[in-house]
Automatic annotation (TrEMBL):
GO terms for cellular component: plasma membrane. InterPro entries: Anoctamin, Anoctamin_TM. Residues 217-309 form the Anoctamin transmembrane domain. It comes from Caligus rogercresseyi. The chain crosses the membrane at residues 207-227, 282-305. The keyword Coiled coil does not apply. PANTHER family: ANOCTAMIN. This is Anoctamin. It is a multi-pass membrane protein. Keywords: Membrane, Transmembrane, Transmembrane helix.
Length: 320
């Protein structure tokens, strides 16, 4: 197994007990279906090198994340049918496992890692004398909040060197950035680039002073053109990256906390947060803090009015 097949690193701190480490390894291997190798960290602790087989990546991408890729006809659609239909070299760019880019693979591995939850009967963190805050709590999230582990994705030297070679300050390789980093980050770059161009002042300062109303009309037209161009460009990116769709139709984050229940519509197991805990948090946290902030704002407003009155009295000109 080469280093290019290591997609995630999980570091277990020295305070993490042997029992907890064995539980984490067993969970990632048996429940998440991932492959692990171990090594010792130079500053202490255990390092887990996490990877996954091609079959496991395909299964997560197709069934769990429901990714969309271009098939042999160039149509972006879900990963259904023969996998060979999505492996046309004409439409694959920077793919490391079939049509999946590094960011796709790391998303699949991260989903598998974070989607493993404790059983409802478990109330104590294995290997540590800590109580779990909720039933069916995410395994890695519990150890991470206890400051026992930390995880991060790995780099790919080949793809990183290629990205550096294609880099251009004024025309950054948006698709290459998206293929290497998380899928939502690169959308900031084309927006900022287009926005910077639209803000450029093409007229000298001494001319703009005398334009007045025509300049306002020009600014309004410029903003309209900018928004229309960005709408079309963002739609192109959304189609090419298969990131369009309503948020309510997307699956919840794997680290979402709550109790596993069957969805009466889809029949799938989903995580539901307790309505009682939601109401309790609203009643004892959100509403009191919001009310306190509003009260302080009202007090400062009255103090400002009173200060204005006092200043008028103190600094008023004498009638004599």
């Amino acid at each position: 197994m080469g280093d290019h097949r290591i997609f995630y690193i999980l570091r277990l701190h020295e305070s993490c007990t042997q029992e907890a480490a064995e539980f984490i390894v067993k969970t990632l291997r048996e429940d998440a279906g991932l492959d692990l190798t171990r090594s010792r960290h130079k500053n202490g602790g255990l390092i887990l090198h996490i990877t996954a087989s091609d079959e496991r990546i395909w299964k997560i991408a197709e069934n769990d994340l429901r990714l969309k890729k271009k098939d042999s006809r160039g149509v972006t659609r879900p990963l259904e049918g023969d996998p060979k239909e999505f492996c046309d070299p004409k439409y694959i760019k920077d793919g490391i496992i079939g049509p999946f880019t590094l960011s796709d693979v790391q998303r699949c591995v991260s989903y598998a890692m974070e989607s493993v939850h404790f059983e409802a009967s478990m109330t104590v963190l294995p290997g540590q004398n800590r109580r779990l805050p909720l039933k069916n709590y995410p395994v890695l999230a519990a150890y991470r909040e206890a400051n026992l582990i930390e995880s991060f994705p790995t780099h790919n030297d080949t793809l990183l060197s290629k990205l550096y070679s294609e880099w251009n300050t004024f025309r950054p390789p948006i698709d290459a950035i998206r293929n290497y980093l998380e899928r939502m980050w690169p959308s900031i770059s084309p927006f900022c680039l287009l926005y910077h161009v639209s803000l450029h002042d093409f007229l000298p300062r001494n001319v703009t002073i005398y334009l007045g109303l025509p300049l306002w009309v020009l600014n309004l037209a410029t903003v309209t053109v900018f928004l229309e161009i960005w709408k079309r460009r963002s739609n192109d990116h959304a189609y090419d990256w298969a990131s369009s769709g309503k948020l309510r139709h997307k699956k919840p984050r794997p680290e979402y906390r709550g109790v596993l229940k069957e969805n009466s519509i889809s029949g799938e197991m989903e995580v539901y947060y307790s309505p009682y805990k939601t109401i309790k948090k609203l009643a004892f946290v959100s509403i009191p803090i919001t009310s306190l902030c509003l009260l302080l704002a009202f007090i400062f407003m009255l103090a400002s009015f009173k200060a204005d009155e006092l200043f008028e009295i103190w600094f008023a000109d004498s009638p004599y």
